[in-house]
Specification:
single chain; 187 residues; alpha+beta; 5 helices; 5 strands; globular
């Protein structure tokens, strides 16, 4: 023993409803967290965020500390043809938020809102190789029910690695202007 005591300071985490000023940071984190060139994450965009926020704003949350955004969750009521099922579709964390209970807090806030809105159950999906997310979902009361394998057939006329759509969200500059007009930079 050297006589030194190491004290880890953890900043206070605040979980709050998603607001317009958070959208730019949420989009940035989503683009870093999700491989938008691979299924099923190819649908990550401002439109995807807006669809959840418009349909079920009470199920869309962020977590932040004094450094900024730590993570987000986006959920909505209805899944495919089941209007009584909630869907926790998107969740992402900054690296510095992992292991601090941030994901569990976001999941709990989202699920509470979906059950309050009438969900009889909530579903989510986790990529098969994402053991940490699967374990977190199990800790938060989710159980594995159905396994689906996604089969993909590429277009033989497109060269490998060539995307048929832009990886940049075309609504990004409009979002930044709207965020500045409604209260300053996204935080």
């Amino acid at each position: 023993m050297s006589g030194y005591v190491i004290i880890a300071c953890m900043s206070e985490v605040e979980t709050i409803p998603l607001r317009l000023t958070h959208l730019d940071a949420v989009l940035d984190l989503g683009y870093r967290a999700f491989d938008v060139k691979a299924m099923p994450y190819t649908s990550w965009s401002l439109s995807s965020v807006a669809a959840h926020w418009d349909a079920q704003p009470d199920a869309c949350w962020i977590a932040r500390d004094e450094e900024g955004l730590l993570g987000f969750v986006l959920g909505s009521l209805s899944y495919d043809e089941r209007e009584d099922w909630g869907y926790l579709e998107w969740i992402a964390l900054e690296e510095r938020a992992r292991g601090r209970g941030v994901a569990s807090s976001l999941v709990e806030h989202c699920c509470t809102a979906l059950f309050a809105a009438g969900a009889s159950r909530i579903i989510t999906d986790v990529e098969s190789g994402n053991a940490a997310s699967a374990a977190m979902m199990r800790r938060n009361g989710f159980t594995e029910k159905v396994t689906v394998t996604l089969f993909v057939r590429p277009n033989p006329r497109e060269h490998a690695g060539t995307a048929s759509h832009s990886l940049q969200d075309p609504a990004r500059s409009r979002l930044r202007r709207a965020a500045r007009a409604s209260g300053g930079p996204a935080s």
